[in-house]
Specification:
Order of helices and strands: HEEHEEHEEHEHEEHEHEHEEEHEHHH
Shape: globular
Number of helices: 12
Structural class: alpha/beta
CATH superfamily of the largest domain: P-loop containing nucleotide triphosphate hydrolases
Strand order of the largest sheet: 8-9-7-10-6-11-12-15
Largest sheet: 8 strands, mixed
Strand content: 15-25%
Distance between the termini: 50 Å
CATH class of the largest domain: Alpha Beta
Number of domains: 2
Number of strands: 15
Helix content: 25-40%
Radius of gyration: 21 Å
CATH architecture of the largest domain: 3-Layer(aba) Sandwich
CATH topology of the largest domain: Rossmann fold
Length: 361
Amino acid sequence: MSDQALLEQALGSYVDPLLGCTLQSAGVTREVQVQGRQARVRLELGFPAAGYRDRLAADLRWHLAALRPDLAVEVAVEWRIVPQAVQKGLQPLPGVKNIIAVASGKGGVGKSTVAVNLALALQAEGARAGILDADVYGPSQPLMLGSRERPTSPDGRRMHPIRAHGLQAMSLGFLMASDAQPAIWRGPMATQALWQLLSETVWEELDYLVVDMPPGTGDIQLSLSQKVPVAGSVVVTTPQDVALLDARKGLEMFRKVGIPVLGIVENMSTHVCTQCGHEEAIFGAGGGERLAHEAGTELLGQIPLDIRIRQQTDSGNPTVAAEPESALAHRYRDIARLAAARLAYGAAAAAGFPSIAVVED
């Protein structure tokens, strides 16, 4: 067998944990060249992987060295993000390749905090990302992004998104005179307002638009799920039983309208005492993993109850932007990368992958 054929065979047997399959079956191998004792392999992933490509390249070199230790292999890892399928009968939004809805069955589980850090994490991984605050009754993204700027509209018909921490952002909160001004609307009015925010914003070549959905599974959520072209969804919950019960309802809502569920994020998973270091699962343990198993989806990761996350979002500087090299920021990036990989390649092998837990500083 030639060196070229041997290398291609070795690549075909390598299973990547994010792809959930071999490189060959995922179709990510773009180039395999062998010249003497030098070889070059070029991969093109379907999701952003700035924080993962070095590890993938190193693991692949180790895998190949087991077969040909005398062969010096250069591994280049690139990515190209393409639009994924949306609900039947809907067309992708202009300027947006993929919309990811972040939802929860009930309020108070940290959905908006997860959503903004997810968008920032996708950006940190190398994607063009934006966020739409779809919670018209309690828009929180202006506070979390640290911006009270008002959108501009040169033509009087369409608005340019606000720029904050590199993200393109839009929220009803940017259009209100003050944070205390309520949106006193019935369901159809709120749904129409959200559709206008989404469709009348000039999104500029986004790979991902993260939509911070309103909590619950009522008329607004259902209407949005049927009208907005969503490629995938992420459900946020805490480990406690009442939150898990409502999260299951949100998960099933997405499935009923034909939106893939990429996985579950368990927020406030554990608390680590800042004084003594004692770790305690104050809202229960294993709930997110159990829900993912029962619902046939994946636990994308676990985020602890950490005072820094609250302080950073309240100050308009979310964790991924405030401390980009911290353990917390890297866990958000792990979750974002895994969700993007599931969007690109599906979740058929989800049950075989480890969950992400953060219990340190």
